[in-house]
Design a protein that fits this description.
By secondary structure, the protein is mainly beta. The chain is built from two helices and eight strands; from the N terminus they run ββαββαββββ. It is elongated, with a radius of gyration of 18 Å. The model has no long low-confidence stretch (mean pLDDT 93).
Length: 130
């Protein structure tokens, strides 16, 4: 089975990415034909808009989240970078709080200046503890 790391949170995409740019993406959710082997997927939102021709369904990607069916996350940093590189004219706001199976395996992942960046926590002792 392997080591499991849980990633909690959502990274929002601003502005949302239109369907025409994501329809062939392997990062689509499973129910839309995405790749089950990936660690993350796009958050898809659908809305209806009335037009003179009828009702138009508008589909956009508004964020990125962990695939909850298989929380391995071996390649989550690289895969987040792939998504950032695929949509250079968009901002990525938010973070994943990651926790592995072993005690103390805590870290965060967010996009900083176009780079998927992993942050490790630091532990400091209070000044009077020596």
């Amino acid at each position: 089975m392997g080591y499991i790391t849980y990633a909690r949170g959502v990274i929002r995409i601003e502005p949302p990415v239109p369907w025409g740019q994501i329809k062939d993406s392997p990062f689509l959710p499973n129910d839309r034909g995405g790749d089950r082997g990936l660690d993350i997927h796009l958050v898809i939102e659908t809305s209806e808009r009335e037009t003179d021709e009828g009702v138009l369904n508008v589909v956009v990607a508004t964020g990125i989240e962990e695939r909850h069916d298989e929380p391995r996350n071996y390649y989550i940093v690289d895969q987040l970078q792939q998504l950032v590189d695929a949509f250079p004219d968009h901002s990525f706001v938010g973070r994943f709080d990651c926790e592995g199976e072993e005690a103390g395996d805590l870290w965060r992942l967010k996009v900083v200046n176009g780079k998927a960046t992993r942050f490790e926590p630091t532990i400091t002792w209070p000044a009077d503890s020596e």
